[in-house]
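User:
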Amino acid sequence: MTISSIRARRAAPACLRPAVLALAVAAALPVLAQQPAPVQLAQNTHVPALRETVVTATRTAQPLSDLVADVSIVDRETIDNSGATGLVDVLARLPGVEISRSGGVGNASNVFLRGAEGRFTAVYIDGVRVDSQSTGGAVWEQIPLSQIDRIEVLRGPAAAVYGSDAIGGVIQLFTRKGEGPAAPYVGIGLGTDNLRRIEAGVSGSAGEGGAFDYALGITREQSDGYDIRNNAGHNPDRDGYSSTAGHARLGFKVNARHRLDATLVANRLESGFDVSPSPVDDRNHNRMRTAGLTWSAQWTEAFNSRLSVTDSMSRYETTPSPYLTETRLRGYLWQNEYRVGAHLFTAALERREDHLVNAPIDQGRSQDALALGYGFNAGGHTLQLNVRHDSDSEFGGKGTGSVAYGYALTPAWRATASAGTAFRAPTLYQRFSEYGVATLVPESSRNAELGLRWAQGSNSFSVVAYRNRVQNLISFGAPGPCASSFGCYENTARAEYKGVTLAGAYKLAGVQLRGSIDWQRPRDLDTGKLVARRAKHHATFGADTLVAGWTLGAEVQASGQRFDNAANTNVLGGYGLVSLYASKRVAREFTLLARVDNLSDKVYELARTYVTPGRTLFVGLKWAPQL
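Assistant: Predicted structure:
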C-alpha cells in the first residue's frame, strides 16, 4: 500500500444554523459602531493587541495593523482555555481550517487550509521547518501542543517568501520566550479516559539589562484512550497514548546591536491503533525534534540581518507490523532588511537539505534559493511585492512571485487584493519508493483573492474571497513506469480551491463574541467532484464573559457533509459540536480550568471506520506565582 494517513468514522447530521445566525449578528454589528480607529484586522480566537507584531506573512516583524495578508493569531491564554491536548484541535477552531484524524490524540492527523491538501501547508516551530518526506507535510500528532506558546496562521500561498510547500498557507508555532524575573509554573490535569497530565517549567531573564533570557518546559501526558475502530474483526482494545515533551529556548544579548538565540523542542509519543485483526496490538512510535541557532544583528538604524541554522527530525515506526520512516531536514537562512522611510527592502539566501530513510530508500536532495521583497506603507496605501527562485538538485529551477495591495477606505475599513504563485516539490517517497517516478515535476498553483476588513478597538469583521488553482497535482494512479504492479504516483490531476471566509469578533454587554464561517468548493477539476474529507461549508462560534471572577465560555464547531474518497461515494455526515469551559484564579498563585467538549455526546466521523471522542471532561490546576 502507499503511505497515507488513516482516518476516522462515525456519523451524525449537522446543523450550521446556530453558528450562522450568531455570526450574522456579529457581522452586522460593525455597521452600528461609531468613531472608528485606525487598525487592520487579523481575525483571532483571542483578540490580539492592535500593535502586536506578526512575522509569518513576510518573514519580517510587522505590526498587525500593517498586514495585507489573511492571518490568525492564537496566544497562550487561548491555548490554555481550549483544554486541548492535540494541536489540530486548536487549529480546527480557526477560520479556513479543517482537520481529519484517525481516532483520538496520538493518531494520524491532517490539517487543510482553505481546502488545500495537507502537504500544501508549510509548518515551522521557532523558525525550524518540519515536514515528512514520506507522507508530505507535517506529522501533526508529533508536535506537542503543551510546548507551544503562540500560533500564527497565514491563509494563502507564500512560496515567494518560504519556497516549496506553501501552496495553501503557512503555520508558525512559537515556544515561550523568557523575560523579567524567574517565573516558574507547575500544572496538573485529569480527564476522561483516565487522561493524566503534569507539566512544569520556568522562564525569565538575568544579567545586566536582562542580557540572558531563558525558557524551559517539560510535560508528561498519558491516556488509556478508547477503542478507535468500529469495523468488523478489529482488536477491541483501548487505544491510548503517552507523550513526553520538552523545550528549551535561550537568548543572549551580546550588546545593543547583536543577539544570539537557540531553541530546542522534542517529543516522544507512543500510541495505539488498530489495523491488524484481533488480538494483535498495533502500536505507533513517534519521535520528533527541532533545533535552531540564530544570530541577529542591527548594523545600522536602517539595516539589520539574521543568520540561522536549523535542523529537524521526524521518525515514525510501527510494531508488531514492521515499518520505519525517518525524515531529516537541515536549513540555512541569511535574511537581510533595509528600511528607508515608508519603504522596506528584503533579501534572503536560503539552503534546504532533505533526507529520507524508508527502506530501501536512503535518498537526499537540496534546494538553494534567492528571495527578494519590497514593502511600502504610507498614506493609507500598503504594497507588498515578493519574488523567489529555488534551484532544486533534482528537477532544476522554479520561480514564484506575489503581489498584495491594501487601501484604507476609512481609518477602520480596508480593502485588499493579492495574487501569487506557489509550488510543492515531490517528496522523496513519491520519487524513489516502489510506487515512485523519478521524473515527477513540482505541483504548482496560481492564487488570487480579495478582502474587505473592518476593525475598531477589539472589534473586527472580515470577508475574504479566494481562488487557488493547482496543476500537476500528484495523485496515485494505475500501474505504469514505477516498480509496483499496484499503481504509481503521477502528475495528472488538477484541483481548484475556491471559497469565501467570513469572520468577526465583537464585545457586546460584557460578552466577547467571535466566529467564522467558510463557504468553499475544493474540487478535482477533471472529475468535478469534491476532494476527500473537505466540506462545502464549516463554521465556528465562541463567546466568553467574566462572572464573579470566573471566565465562562462556550464554543460551537459545525461542518457540512464530506466524502471519504475521491469518487464521492463514501459519505461522512455533517456534525455540530458544543463545548463549555470555565476558569478562575482560585488563589493568588493558582488557576483552575474545567472544560467539557462535545457536550451533547455527538456521534460523528472525520474518516471511515475510525471513532472520534464522545463527551469528554478535563479539569486542570496550574500554579504560577505572580511576581
